Amino acid sequence: MTNPSDATLVIIPTYNELENLPLIVGRVRAATPEVDILIVDDNSPDGTGAKADELAAEDEHVNVLHREGKGGLCGAYVAGFQWGLEREYTVLCEMDADGSHAPEQLHLLLAEIDAGADLVIGSRYVPGGKVVNWPKKRWILSKGGNAYISLMLGGGLSDMTAGYRAYRRAVLEEMDLDELSNAGYIFQVDLAWRANVAGFDVREVPITFTEREIGESKLDGSFVKDSLFEVTRWGVKHRAGQLAEMAGVTRSVIGYEYNRWNRNRRR
């Protein structure tokens, strides 16, 4: 009996991750030797792309996709998804290059896929999940932002901004990847929300998120403002659509009851 996770691709975007890349690739290969890896490098000036080519030359499970210029995390994942969908992979995963997503926990996500989930999110904010080495202010900002996102969009998910994920290919085939929002890290919310609205089985598993030890974070504070503005816009539009749908159903029910009452009155 085969499982969906038997054909898994782990996509690792890179930009200036020369020191981290061999470490994360080695950990993935040790933890889940059966999966393939795709390194998507955005023309890193520090030589990450060349290192990726070296790793690929040494290991048939490692592949490299070079992109011109720094195109952003969303663009890197979209390119990786498209590369994987053009091949026979049934599960495609997102994983950071900096070690914040523990490859040793990938099996938790894949087990849920094999148990029937369509999208599995490695969550910091469900019971059992935790964050290591984050300043309190950043934790509050992330936790509060996710609570706001959940309130505005619904769906019952605790960590829609999380970037440690496993998708069945059917989820990504359903999406128009070119339409994904690219306001900061909001594309992660966009994907999770679209999957939820489309009726896919979206689950969360607890993971330990560890702040990077080597290099600097690519994340700046501007994503908070941009992301929450975008989520607010989606939420208002979504709620307006729900209210319009509810109003239409109410009118139909009232009309049906009135017509039935009128027919009975004439008898």
TrEMBL record:
InterPro entries attached to this UniProt entry: DPM1-like, Glyco_trans_2-like, Nucleotide-diphossugar_trans
Q: Does the keyword Protein transport apply?
A: no
For this UniProt record, give its keywords in alphabetical order, as a comma-separated list.
Answer: Glycosyltransferase, Transferase
Q: What is its EC number?
A: 2.4.1.83
GO MF terms here are: dolichyl-phosphate beta-D-mannosyltransferase activity
Q: Which GO terms describe its cellular component?
A: membrane
Is Glycosyltransferase tagged as a keyword? yes
Q: Which reaction does it catalyse?
A: a di-trans,poly-cis-dolichyl phosphate + GDP-alpha-D-mannose = a di-trans,poly-cis-dolichyl beta-D-mannosyl phosphate + GDP
Entries under SUPFAM superfamilies matching the protein: Nucleotide-diphospho-sugar transferases
Give all residue intervals belonging to the Glycosyltransferase 2-like domain: 10-174
Listed GO biological process terms: glycolipid biosynthetic process
The text of the family note is: Belongs to the glycosyltransferase 2 family.
PANTHER family reported for this sequence: DOLICHOL-PHOSPHATE MANNOSYLTRANSFERASE SUBUNIT 1 (PTHR43398)
The name on file for this protein is dolichyl-phosphate beta-D-mannosyltransferase
Q: Which species expresses this protein natively?
A: Corynebacterium comes
